[in-house]
Each structure stands twice: as C-alpha cells, then as structure tokens.
Structures
1.
Amino acid sequence: MNVRSSAKKSLGRASLPPSLRAEGNRRRILEAALRLFAAQGFHGSSMRELAAVAELQPSALYVHFPSKEQLLAELVRAGHEAHHDALRTALLEAGSDPAAQLTALVRVHVRMHASYPELAIVVNSEMAALSEELAAPGMALRRQAAALLRDVVDRGTAMGKFFPPDAYAAAAAIAAMGLRVPYWYSAETGMSIERLAEVHVELALRMLGAVRA
Amino acid sequence: MNVRSSAKKSLGRASLPPSLRAEGNRRRILEAALRLFAAQGFHGSSMRELAAVAELQPSALYVHFPSKEQLLAELVRAGHEAHHDALRTALLEAGSDPAAQLTALVRVHVRMHASYPELAIVVNSEMAALSEELAAPGMALRRQAAALLRDVVDRGTAMGKFFPPDAYAAAAAIAAMGLRVPYWYSAETGMSIERLAEVHVELALRMLGAVRA
DNA sequence: GTCTATACTATGATAGAC
DNA sequence: GTCTATCATAGTATAGAC
C-alpha cells in the first residue's frame, strides 16, 4: 500500500480567480479542492482529505456541492472562463495590428498562468476526470481560445507580417510555452510576472519572424 | 456517482520505448498500464481495469509487479531513461557549435514526445503519484535533461551566438514546446514527425536569435 | 504463472439529530 | 448548515488450488 498520508506534500496557498464569486465555507471548500487537486490530482484526493483541509466534516461538503465531480467542474469552469475572458478582452483592446494582437494574447496568457498556477494545473491536467457533459463547456472555451490565437497568427501571416515555418505548429508552440509556466515559474526566482510575460511576448514574436509593434 | 465505465474512452495503441525489455504478459501489462494511465491517470485507473485490458485476472498482475505504484514507477523510469539517453546521444553527435547542439536537442526532444505520446503524458503528468523514493531517479534525470538544454543555451549566449531575452526562460519555453506535443500533435494531420521536429528546431533557433547551423 | 475467491481498507455519498 | 454515524461500493492486495 502507498503510504501517501505519511509523505504529505506542502500545499501552500491557492487562489481562485476574482471572477469566481464564492463566500464563506463554499469558498473554503473551493480553495481546498484547488490546492488538493493541483497537488495530488482529482482522483488522488478524497473528500475526507478535502474536508480536513477545509476544516469541515465530509458530509458538510455536500451541502455546497452535490458531488466531488461537480466540485471539480466548478473549478474547471471558472478557470476556463477567466482565461477566455482575459484573452478576449486583451484582443479587443489591442487594435488591428497582428503583432499588437499577438503581444496582447501572449501577455495575458502568460500572466494568467503565472498568477493562478494551481487553477491552470487543475484545468489542464484534470479535465479527463470530468464526464463528457461536464467537460463540454470547458472544451468549447478551450477551442475558442486556441482559435483566437490561430486566427491572429493566420491573419498576420496572410498580411505578410508573420513568417512562421508552420502556422498551426507555431500557434500550438506559443500556447504551449504559457501552459507550462505554472510548472516551473516561481516569483521567488526574482523574475516578476510582468517581466516573464514580456519575455514570452518577445519569444513568440521571434517565433513568427515578426517585429515588435 | 460518476458513470465513467459507460463513457469509456477509446484507448488506442500505446508503445513502449525499444529500450524497455519486457516480454509476454509482463509486456502486455506494461502496455495496458501505459494506455490506461495516459488516458485516465494513475489514480483514475484501477488494477481491475488494468487486468481487463491486459486480459488477465487482477491477481495475475502481482506476479509481475509487486504493486500498482511499482508498475507506474517502471513506466516512469523507462520513459525518463529513454528520453535522457536520446538527448545525451544526440548532443554527443552534434559537435561543438551551439546552434548544432540546440538543433540536435530540440529535434530528439520533439521526436521522442511525438513518437511516444502516451509515455510522455504518463511521465509528465503522473509522477506526483509516486512516493518520493520512487520518484527520485526520474526527477534526477529530469533535472539533468533540463541542465543539458540550459547549458547549451548559456554557452551559446556566452559565445555571442544566441541572444535570448532571458536564457532561463527561453530554455524553459523551448522544453515546453516539446512537452506539449503529445497533447495536440497527431500524424493524421499530415505533418510527419520529422517535419514537426524541424519546425520546432526553427522555432527554437528563432527564440534564441540564432542562425541555422 | 494463472485462476477463483476473498480479506481488508478507503471511498463517495446519505440519514437523521441539532 | 454542520455534525455524528453509517451505507454500499470499489479499491489494492493476498491465499490457496491447479
């Protein structure tokens, strides 16, 4: 038997996005779930552990969420919505220049992943634990977010401003850089989130052969 | 309750690296575990499911592996070793030019992740399920692999051949591109693995401001 | 080395008092 | 809305026959 309980990871803080309105114990439960799911995975975390972290009895969880899966679904939904809203807003404010649009998308993409690392990890790693029905809204937002980036890359390429070796792969690679940020970046390295975002913007523009707007 | 059994994912093939010597039912079990762990995660897959996929009774699994965790550890070990060996060999054959070294590393990094996507997913996503002792060898190889890349980037930068906005972040971003490949790339898109690797080489060289060797 | 059968524990979720 | 107590099931792993 695995004696995971004796090798408990330090869980640290875990912050929910501002868009997620939740108070009192409902919020405590969501934060506890975020910490646990990010550190141990959905299937690797039990409702008993969750209750312990939230300082409640297991049965009290079910007053706020009908099931463990619905709890995960709420986190995943909030994460996808916060991410997609941030991307869409950034793009709207970026004007019509492809390089400015790409800059805006990469900046906010990286910023979100560095600011809410646990949420990003849960959203990206634990979606397979959701039923198709519960995963569908998140999957849709994910496809839309990917399309936002691909459209910017495609448009810039068509306009003769970007020169990617392959537009699809380049878009995937740009997204990938940001997606991995929560797994390695720590503010304690001395690099600020804003600087991290600017570095990624520069890398992305270089990948596309663009010049800074 | 989740009715996952009624929404079973199609699991597809799952190939072990050539370096992993295993035959007969031991191999079948490893392949079944690779498929299941990649699709549902370690904690999301039961020994009963595993036995069913391997077409054995659950008790037969324990003749070949002492525990579920040891089974995962074997996959994770094989994956890390294959990856690290490939990187090291590629670097040895690349000569002394930083751009050539980077090209070799990125090429093999991407090739491995595209050729063994399930293994890459398990290695990257399920290591938290291992005890510290069982995870340690893999973590060590991972650190060494990251150091190989960072050293090439640092040396090329010191030699005035690379011009990254930030060497550490650039190395992390280059690694990240490859790590995400298993999650989006499919040979059915029409792009070959070799072409995918070359595209990533080009992207990485651009990120560093280098010229092709 | 594989099978049938089963032990023991952990898990998600519920009942009912307060 | 939280608690104590508990149910029903699924989980890892083992025993013993062949």
2.
Amino acid sequence: MSETQPRRRGRPPGDGREAILEATGDLLRERGISRLTTREVAARAGVSEASVFYHYGDRAKLLQAAFDRGLAPLLAIAAQGEVAGADRHQVLERVGRGIERFLMEAMPILTAAQSDAELRDELAAMMSERDLGPHRGVSRVGDYLAAEQAAGRVRGDVDPHAVAASFVGTCVMRAFQATMHLPTRRLPPLSAVIDALDTMLEPPPG
Amino acid sequence: MSETQPRRRGRPPGDGREAILEATGDLLRERGISRLTTREVAARAGVSEASVFYHYGDRAKLLQAAFDRGLAPLLAIAAQGEVAGADRHQVLERVGRGIERFLMEAMPILTAAQSDAELRDELAAMMSERDLGPHRGVSRVGDYLAAEQAAGRVRGDVDPHAVAASFVGTCVMRAFQATMHLPTRRLPPLSAVIDALDTMLEPPPG
DNA sequence: GTCTATAGGTTGATAGAC
DNA sequence: GTCTATCAACCTATAGAC
C-alpha cells in the first residue's frame, strides 16, 4: 500500500500475489466462476499453479480475496457522505451514474456467488452484517429528497424514499441487464427516467 | 403432453425423464449450478446416473432443458396481452406483483447462466432473438400509462415509458435482492413505491 | 517465493447386461 | 428404459528441490 520508493512502471518483479488476484478477477468476469480453475488462474497470471496455493491457501480463499476486491466499489459507495448539490436534476444524474458504475463492477461478483449455495450464503451474511445492499443507495437518495422536500423544493405528498427506490431500482435493472450481456438500448435511457421523476417531484405551483 | 387416459395420482411409474428435470431445477435453485453434478441429479431423482445421460445426452443439454423450463414464466409474461383495468393503483399493484413473482422464478436461472461464459452468451443470444428482457415489462406498463395519458388520467408532461422503467426497475431490484437471499425488508415495500408513482402521475387539477 | 512433478479425488460420459 | 461397473479427463492440493 505505502511506498517511500518512487514507483516504477509495470508490475514489480516477483509480485505474483497481485498478478494472481488480478487474473482471478479477470477470469471471473470474462469466463465465469465455473471456468475459473486454479490452472487457468496460474496460466494467466504467468506463475505456476503451486504459487496460487502458496499465496492463498486454497481455491475458496482465493475466491474470497477476489470477492473482497470486487466488492470494494460497493463498500466505497456505502462509505460516501451525504448527497447534495444545487440542481436536483444534476444531482440525480451524478448519483445515478455513480450507482450504475459501481454496480457494473460488483454485479459479476454478486451473480458469481449465486452459483454456489455456500458462497451465496456467506456473501449474504457478510452483506447483512455490514448492512450493505441496494437499500443503502435508496437511503442516500431518499434522505436527499427528504431534505429537498423539507426545503419546499419537492412536493410534500409523496414518500421520498419510495421515489428513491424507484430511481435506484432503475439503475439496478440497467446494470443487471448489462452484466448479462443483453443490450440496454431497448430500455429508456437513465436520463429519461431522471427527467420524468424530476418533473413529477416538482411542487405544484401556488 | 396430451393424455386420453384418466390421470393417476403421483408420478407415473417409469417417468424418470420428468423426475430428472425436476431434480435439476431444484438443485439449481437450492445449491447453485456449481454444485449441480449429474451424480446429485440422479440421486435426487431416484434414478441411476446413466439414465440422466440416456434421456438428455450430456450435462449441457440437461442444463438447457432446465433453463427452458425455468424461463417459462419469462416467456409467459411476454406473451400476455395488454395491461388494463379501471383503477390505476390496482393495475400497478397487480402487474407489479406479477412481475416480481415471475422474476423470482426466473432469476436463479439468469444468475446461474452468468457462471459460465458459454451459457451466458447462449442465453443472451436466445433472449435477444426473442426480444426478451425487462424492456418487455417496461413496454407493457409504458403502453398502459400512455393510454391513460391519452385519456387524460395521467399528467401529460412526462414520458410514460420512463416512469414504467422506474416501476419495473423497482421490481427487478426487489427480486434480485430476494434471489441473493438478502432481506428485502430494508427496502421500501412495493406498495409504497406504487403509492408515490400513482400520486405523482395524477394530472394537476384544473 | 517460485518451480516441477505427482498424488488423490471428483466428474462427465460410455459399455453392456437385463 | 434402467441398471451396475468402469474409464478417461480434469481439478485441487501437496512434496520437495532450487
């Protein structure tokens, strides 16, 4: 993590550990967890298979490490502060893109875990414990809309968190579709959804 | 499929083919595709492993058959007619529950396919060819809202299909969360989202 | 830390009797 | 159609040299 020496270009010689983790993540996304063998990982990382086990003990621990890294964006977005900004439309645009981007990184991990009940349950336990999940995004956006509502800039007769759920849900749907390698072009663009929600959130004149 | 004889109770003797397919689906949902071995399938179906290969040729074709069956609800919802009804709130409630129910059935199949690039790409090709996906639900709900808009029962300054996307997205998010065995209780209930959208869709008085 | 070589176990698939 | 028995391939993991 911390280095006093100036960084050199390329991978430091002998840093097989990092190369292995990177190869694992790449294979996980490209070929899927079923095709993820320690053989393939070693080959792509340019090391021997024994090195994989030397560094990570067994396949399960290697997967765990790859999952931890792959879910980092999910932790990052959860750790972010409050949502704020002058223009509501711009705020939703920025937050929505962020959620989609984060989900696109994490989604392959989430779906990969579904291939094995043990992995799935471990992941579910971890996420429950840390209170992770889409509801975090919903809370963040919902709190923002609630503040806007309190300031009189959002109509008072709707539940801000319910609207936030529909917004985050749109992002989840789009990310899920993209992860499955299905075209998202048949879905309304995110900006259109933001336009509609933004318009409907406007307080009635008078 | 068609039988002139009166049906007997229970599984007909010697219908191993059906038992195998059922066992495959069960294992797929319960333990995940990585743990789905022909051995386990045979054991749960109460037949020998050779029977599995006799009926389905190889593991890939067995999976294909299980996928076809598991995605039937997706085909069913796509084949449904137009959405209609007197009360908009009730219509959204009914359609939303339907989408959630269908997705809860199909989601394990969709995520299972992500474990193998070959399966994933085959599924994506099949869905593209048949024009399947969340956008079908979005279209159906969007067309309904557009009709309501034309009838003056939905405000005219929003894109009905964009609102429909946010609605279907909510259902996708909830189904995805449930499939991952994460609690959906931290998300706003679907009825709250319907309430909010319904309220916001109301045309301004006057 | 990294390698080669290999043990040990699991899996998909086939052969042949009934 | 269903079974038992078996095989070849593959995968995880370890041993031991460098």
3.
Amino acid sequence: MDTSGSELSVLSAALKGAGIRMTHQRIEVFSELQASHGHPSVTEIYEGVRKRLPSISPDTVYRTLRLFSELGLIIPHSSTSSVTRFDVNVHEHHHFVCTRCSRIFDFTSSSIDPLEVPREAESFGEVQGVQLEVRGICRDCLRRERTQEE
Amino acid sequence: MDTSGSELSVLSAALKGAGIRMTHQRIEVFSELQASHGHPSVTEIYEGVRKRLPSISPDTVYRTLRLFSELGLIIPHSSTSSVTRFDVNVHEHHHFVCTRCSRIFDFTSSSIDPLEVPREAESFGEVQGVQLEVRGICRDCLRRERTQEE
DNA sequence: ATGCATGCAAATGCTTTGCAGCGTG
DNA sequence: CACGCTGCAAAGCATTTGCATGCAT
C-alpha cells in the first residue's frame, strides 16, 4: 500500500495551517521520516535525504526537525534540552515532562501503582525499571505563553 | 530526621562493593545529590558542591555522576547519548530504553492499553500524551557484556 | 608505597546562529 | 516581487579525555 500521498497531505495541512512554506527540503525530510524505522537521529535523516537532495545542509535538517517537533508531527525523545538531569529518587515514581522547558515533575499514583512490566517489554532484554512518562506543558510555560500572546 | 548518616553508608557500600575509592569529592557530590530537590543537572550539583569544596572541577563532577549512574545510585534522565532521536510513530505506544546503548524499542501492550492519565499528573499542566517507559539493558548489550567478561 | 582519582586544559561532537543569496507563494 | 528559507561557516555548549600530580588504601 502506498500511503505517501496521504501522508504528504498531512504535512501540507500542517504547514499551510501555520503559514509556513512547503519547500523541497521539508518534503524530503518529511518523507525520510515516514520511511524511517524506529527512532531516527538527525544524522540518519540527514544521510537519507542527502541521497536525493545532495545539496541539503545539516543545519537545514536540524531546523526542519525542530519545526516539525513544534508542529507536533514528530516527538523528540525526552528532553529537548541538552543538559543531562539525574533522578536521585530511587523509589518508584512517575514523570511529568514539560515539552517546553524540559523540567521534570515527579508524582506517584495510587490508581496505577504498583506498575507492572508488560510481557511485551521483557522480550527486549533485562528490565531495570518502569515508569509512566506524561508529556505536557507545565503551568509556568502555559502562563508564559498566554502572556506573550496578548 | 537525619538520614545523612544512613545514606552515606549506601555510598560506602556501593563503592566498597565495586572496589572503588571513597574520596572527598565523591562524598560531597553524593550528599549534594541527597540534598537536591527534583532533578539536578551537572551544573547545579557542581555549584552546590563548590561551596564546600571550592577546588573541585566540573569534570570530576561529570565523572562522579557517571560513576554513580553506573552503580545505580542515580538514574540519568533519558538517554546518556547526546544525540536527539525523534519519534515518528504518532500512535500510542511505549518505549523500552536501553540504558547502555540508548536505543529505543517500541511496543504496545494489550494488558495496559489504553493507558489513562493519572489524576496526579494533570495538576502539573496541559497533558499531551502518556506512555510507559521501561528502562533496561537490551539483548545486544547483554550479549556484548557477556562476551567481554569471558 | 602503589595506583586510582583529581584538576587542568584542550579537544570533541552535537546543535545553533548570522548572514547573503535563492526560491516559494 | 517580497519575505521566508537555505547553505555556509563559525560560534556555542555540554561533555569527554590525556596527562602529571596528589591522595586513599
């Protein structure tokens, strides 16, 4: 089955909706993403697109992927911020990760704890821990964005 | 309640067990971690320790935090690897994250899906998505480590 | 005493940014 | 045809590493 056409319309709609231009580079990065398996890195996308668009530069790929993330077309895995943060709390707990400021908030939940490891996950290797990861926009960022839009 | 003594014994045991020396720097980084709230970054720990140990260098903090991660005393949030990876799969799914090679494996689970957002998480802000994050060591890394130990 | 750990400084690698020219709408 | 987008090159950061000295065991 060929879904490339319908997928492209997703891109078209997303860009048009935000008043952003549809360029060759963006189209190629988008289709490379669709064709990719797993969780591609910037370099992997870059190398893939380069086969069809040899003149594309890495920074355009960076910019494009960031744009797509902002549009919600893709999700950067965990913190966008470059600094590593450490979890000192060794007890079972879950995370609310802010997709804007990348701060992490801990919580526990009586309704889901104790959380058990699904069978499906065990097949990948030796499990060390499980937790829920809730992505969202924290109160502070919501407030800041609201203020800026006024 | 003063738990610093008992916490330090955790450090002592972990280091002794691995045949690693107990130094001032390691003790100070460890207690700074205990005293920290949330999810400290390397810089935050460094600044904190520097008040008591002005001569400590950033790279020692880096090395120490990496050591503590390997010993399981702390958990680096998300991938240790510096490259950003993107999730192209917009459908609900979960992640098995390898703590060695930082590769991410997707899975879905009939036993837990659909996954609902716990009440506790909603108080932090606007929720965009939820997923399970299983941390562990993938098959490839397990095999590699077994081979090297022979 | 021995050799691991630290501090210093330089290197590395990912990602971002300023700017001039190009192409989309 | 205006303005946003790209490519280039250089800068910016977080993190890592080589090496000589110092300190824990």
4.
Amino acid sequence: MTRNDRPETLRRATIKDVARLAGVGVGTVSRVVNGMPEVSAASVEAVHNAIEFLGYRRNDSARILRTGATESIGLLVEDVADPFFSLLNRAVEDEVVRQGSVLLTASSSKSPDRARKLILTFCSRRVDGLIITLPEGSDEDYLIREHAAGIPMVFVDRPPQKVAADVVLTDNRGGAMQGVKHLIAHGHRRIACITDRAELFTARERVNGYRDALIDSGNPFDPSFVFSAALEQEQVDTMLGRMLADSDPPTAVFAGNNRAAVMVIGAMRRHGTLLAMVAFDDFELADIVEPGITVVAQDPQGMGVMAMDLLCARLQGSQAPPKTVTLGTRLIPRGSGELPVSGIHLPTVLR
Amino acid sequence: MTRNDRPETLRRATIKDVARLAGVGVGTVSRVVNGMPEVSAASVEAVHNAIEFLGYRRNDSARILRTGATESIGLLVEDVADPFFSLLNRAVEDEVVRQGSVLLTASSSKSPDRARKLILTFCSRRVDGLIITLPEGSDEDYLIREHAAGIPMVFVDRPPQKVAADVVLTDNRGGAMQGVKHLIAHGHRRIACITDRAELFTARERVNGYRDALIDSGNPFDPSFVFSAALEQEQVDTMLGRMLADSDPPTAVFAGNNRAAVMVIGAMRRHGTLLAMVAFDDFELADIVEPGITVVAQDPQGMGVMAMDLLCARLQGSQAPPKTVTLGTRLIPRGSGELPVSGIHLPTVLR
DNA sequence: ATGAAAGCGCTAACAA
DNA sequence: TTGTTAGCGCTTTCAT
C-alpha cells in the first residue's frame, strides 16, 4: 500500500481526521466541504477550523469513484505545440474550466497507435467526454466500442470514417474557393496550387475548392499546376521552377496551408519572382513580410467552443442524431493576394 | 447515485461482472488485467474472453483510490496557446506519456486567482506532481501548504518568491548579454533596448544582461535608450522616433522578446530605416523576413524535459535541497543581427 | 494458482 | 441537524 508506507506526517488528512478533530461525523464534514445548507453554524465553524489546521483537501479520486462523475474532459489533437491546435486547445480549456472540470490533453503526433493508447487511457480515466482529432489511417473499432459504452465524443478538424458522432470541421472546400476566387477577382487566371499530401482530408478538400473556383469562373483546371505531396522545400522549389517555365506560367499561387506558404515564399525568392499568393490558414506574423500574406483564416477557437458545446449537449443526455458543424472561413487581405497579374521582380539586394 | 440512474445497458462492466462471466474470482481478473504472472493459462483465456465480450475497461478512479498513485501530472503555464509554452507543454507531455501517466494542463492567463483555483483543483485530483509557471503577483502561501503536504512542484520560467522547490529558468541575463555582445562585435555602440514591463522577471533580467554587455565592453549605458513598458505599437513607434532623433542615434536594437521584435520591425518601417536587431526568444518564420531576424533562442523543450526530470527525481523520493537549473541560450544569426553600423534606408516601394 | 475479504476516502441514504 | 453506514470498483493480503 503506497500511502501507508509513508511516514505518518506525510499522510494527507482525510475526512475522518477532520471529523474526529472537529468532533462531528464524516457526513457533516462532507456537507460542509460541499457547501450544503443544512448544517449548523457551530459545525461549520468547527469543521473549517479542523480543515485549516490539518491542511485538509478533498480527495477527488474518492469522490469520483463514489459519484461516478469525473468532471474531466479528454482532448486529443495532432500536436499541442501546433499553433492551430494550441489555439483550439485553449478555447476548449476555457470552456472546461468555466464548468469546473479539468482537461486532459495529449498529442497523437499523427500516430494512430499513439492516439489509440492515449484515448483508451482517457477512457480508463472515465473522462466525461472526448474531443478528438483522429490521425489519418486510424482504426476506429475501438472508438465505436467506447462510444457505445457511453463516452460522448466529438471529432474536430477531420471527420471519422465509421464512428457516428458529432463533428466540427472547417469549410476547407469553401475556404479554398474563397481564396482562389479572390485571386481570380484580381485578374489571375493561371494559379498554382501548392499543398500537402492528398491522403490528408483537409488537403484534399482544399484542392477540391481550388478546382471548383477555377471551373466555376470558367478558367481551365490544369493538373500540372497542382502540387499535392509531402511538403519539402526542395520539391517546392523544383515544382515552382517547372511551373514558371510553362508557356503560360502562373501569376499567382494558392498555398494549401502555412507551411506551404512559407516554402512558396522561399521558392519565389530563389526564383527571383513575386507572384500573388493566398494561403489557407492564418498565422501569426503573416504581416511582418512585405507584402503581408493574404490568408483564408480558419477559426480554431470557434471550433473548440463549438466542440465543447456539442459535447455538453451530449453530457446533458441529448440523443439527437449526430451533427456535423462546418465553420466558415474569413479572407484577410494583407497585400500578397492583391498583387496584380504582372509579376514583380525583386531587386537583388533584397532577395 | 449517478451511475445507477442509468439504464442497465449503459452501466459499464466492472471487474465483478467479468469475474462472474469468466467463472473466477475478482482477484484473478485483477491479476490478468494487470498482467501478473501467477495465473493459469485457462484463467487468462476465460478472463480475456469475458473482457472482450463485456467491453470491460478498468476504472482507474477505483485503482487510484486503492493504490494512492494517480499517475498524473499537472501543468500550469501562462497560456497553452503561446508558442513558447506550447512547446514546453509538448515536451512535458512526451515525458509524461512515456511513463504512462496523464497530463492535466491549464493556462493561468496571468491571473494569480485563476492560477490558484487551477492548482488547487490539481491538488484535489492528487496529481503526483506539479509543473508551474506562476503569474506575477501570486500569493504563494497556498503553494507552500500543498508542497508541505507532499506534492512535489517544479517552477519553470520564473522563480517563486517563497516556495522552496526546484526551478528551471532560461539564462535571461546571459542570453541578453550574448545578443547585445553580438551586436557590439558587429561594430555597434549605440544600441536601443525595447522590452516588456519591468515588473516581469524575465524582462528585468534581460535588461540587466543588456546593461552588463554594454558596461563589460566599455560602452556607456544610456537609460534613455531603454524602453521597458507594456508593449504597444504606438508607444514603440514614438519611442524609436525619439531615439532616432538623438544626436548620437542607435544603430542597432535589442528586442527583449518577439512581440517587441515585431513592433520594432513595424516602427522601423514606419521610420523608413533598418537598424540591426537581435531579438530574445526564437520564433517560427523568423527567417521569412528579409533580412531574417537574428535571435537569442531559448529552449522551451529543454525546459520541459528538465522540469520533468527534476519532478521525477522528487517522485522517487529525492530529498535533496531545491535546485535551480538555468538553461543556456543559443544565438541564431539570420541577418538582422549582422547588419553593419551604417543603417540601410529601404527603397520606398518596399516599406 | 486462486477465492474471499478488507479497505482506499468519499457521498448519500437512512435513522435518530 | 446530525451520526452511522453501505458501497463506488479496485488492489492486495491472507488463506487455502
């Protein structure tokens, strides 16, 4: 027994100790600790004194075991250090804290295996609910079981394949469309699309939106202008070079996420050109470059809040059919997306 | 009773249910679940089947209550969405996950009151240990009590005033010195210092380092070149303007953190000048501007790992006197810090 | 190798 | 208003 190994002085006071010292029963102590009304002033006083003296603090493990409510929420994202998810994390935290619960957080690191372990740990901890960004390629059977066992879940950023639960997404397709149409509105016809691996739900959707915008506005969709692969600087450099060598080269770029945007900036510098650009997903300091980067902003905080809202509804017993909420995007013009068709060639000194 | 209100179908299976179905005692089930050796193959088989059939998952609340070990760590930072702390968070998480524990995270939002509530909640949850960035102005008495009650704590980024516990810090003073000396080495004598409120431990230390570097190298320390206040763009603009109007104006700037750096960049643009600059604290995309921002990088991951190391030592019963570990910084030259004394005036088109 | 039983600290029902 | 007590689900002796 872990606790009893310790010297007596390091055993934390229990409700029993308090009761004994205060000269009341444990029930009374419990009532005082939980601020229940039907206790005499004298008892309250005595209990408070004892608590103060003993440095008593309720043991929530015992409380949880007894009541069955853990007042905790589990959050699994791809990486808590990723700006997008850290913002989501914070928004969820604020909701969780507001209702007096605690938040267990973890990062999947894109590993389905790590995700499974973490989620199952959360389930063993009997979290009241789970907010999950599932890594690509996850087996979902275990989720179905836990979900069926009564743990409410809401999925964020990407939809699950099999679990029938609430989902919160960004309107990736619509947002991409919005961004590309912005470029078209500024006169661009030949627009490159640089984005992440097509295996990723979000990347796929954004390419779809890119294509839709082009077709919608009567422009040709040229697959050779789409780079959808693991983002690496060299590849992007090469790819952009190839596109620029086209007989009808791009005058603008749609970057599918901010890593892509950064690489495109690098590639443009190396090629000594400055194409118009709109990037999906806002980022801090998008305006310290000249021109500032025009972005299609997602709303990570909004996603977090919405996820918690949906979760809370389930916690209150809602049996409504699973809902998928899609949050809109916001285009923030900062300069790069409003550049004219005639490309600007940077003076050498500033490249 | 919360649990028994629920329909029978939604009550999760317990160890008893498994035992009954498998035709063994609860002790045996427990042994199987925990992978203890002394169980017959037949029992293991039967138990596994029952577990599978019932969708049994151990209830950690009960386990925790019994064993007294929560296998959880509480982390309180200023804001989980802040890049510095989110990196620290992730590093801590990885250590925590590696040893099979869970991580409770929360943001103080610079509020001593919120911090107190959160920390006391963690204490009620009986976390095994606590990693804390305490907001400026916190009362620490409650921490002393909890610490004395046996909850190990390590403080990160800023030292506590009263609690005698382990601390992990960045060498703010040394780092600032390193940055300023880098500028001096590139010929600068007149160096401005733009940083946050002097109430903040880190800002204060960095100003100290700035002063030390100047004095060490025989340069005068001119208080009128130090701006240490709440960082707002307008103020920084005005302040820089005033400094530039000096009879012996600055040729370089030491920015005390990355918010300061961004504002200095803005101010320089507005004043149509480009001074050399070194900024404290690295940031993503510090190299997408031209020139890239030379920074004195901290090591948030290293701090997280170190904090967990110290915590684990305490968890294993170390009674050594409290240690303060100071992590060194790393200067990353990217261009802005290597600019010569002769200021560059940007061509208008690029301002 | 295994079952029975005590008990972790708490809450809530019940009795007084 | 209050004390007593059962029991939440688990681990861990102690017999067998």
